Amino acid sequence: MRITPDLVICSPQFTNPLREREIKLRAYKIPAIENLGSTQDQFDTIDLSDNEIRKLENFPLLKRLKTLLISNNLIFRIGDDLKDCLPNLHTLMLANNNIVNLQDLNPLCNLPALRRLCLIENNVTKQPNYRLYVINLLPKLLVLDFQKVKTKEREEAKKLFADGMNGVQVTSSQPNKEKITAIKAAIENAKTLEEVNRLEAKLKSEGGMDLD
């Protein structure tokens, strides 16, 4: 299902416990972010969890938006234009997506108001020095993966990355042929569209195909 003005009108809209206006666009199997201009920038929180979105991009200017809930999707790419579209975004929930490399997170540094970020259940969290990398990338971040950023961590991150990318092990760009073959076989045996989409995103992250 695509995001349309009709879907926006029909979706639940309410004042959440934080006394913020929220719209719930979750679990519609939405494949891409589009037409959010139809919200007329009337919401503090947008919930796009439990969909099939692959790219965090294509937002209109949403000055009011402070919280974006977009966990349990297929996101493997973050757009470079978030600064111009989401200038006041404070909280970003990206749990259980397909972000793999530390460098994939770099566009987040363009979000000037970002203070809370969740990336749990993304493969990027398994990268060496992941937490320190994010803290260095986002020096104003207060909470990462539900844990408060400590002064000691800021100091360690600043020291570790004093020479830019020093301390970061970049994931090899060479595809793992055995893993790619296994994923392709799993796609052929998949029984649901959701399973196919998740496996295709995984295949993309392994360098086995181009989904663009």
Automatic annotation (TrEMBL):
Source superkingdom: Eukaryota
UniProt record, GO biological process: mRNA splicing, via spliceosome
Name of the protein in its database record: U2A'/phosphoprotein 32 family A C-terminal domain-containing protein
Gene Ontology molecular function terms on file: U2 snRNA binding
Listed PANTHER family: U2 SMALL NUCLEAR RIBONUCLEOPROTEIN A (PTHR10552:SF6)
Record-stated family: Belongs to the U2 small nuclear ribonucleoprotein A family.
Compartments it resides in: Nucleus
Matches recorded under InterPro entries: Leu-rich_rpt, LRR_dom_sf, RU2A, U2A'_phosphoprotein32A_C
Domain spans labelled U2A'/phosphoprotein 32 family A C-terminal: 127-145
Keyword Acyltransferase set for record: no
Biological source species: Guillardia theta (strain CCMP2712)
Keywords assigned by UniProt, alphabetized: Leucine-rich repeat, mRNA processing, mRNA splicing, Nucleus, Repeat, Spliceosome
GO cellular component terms given for this protein: spliceosomal complex
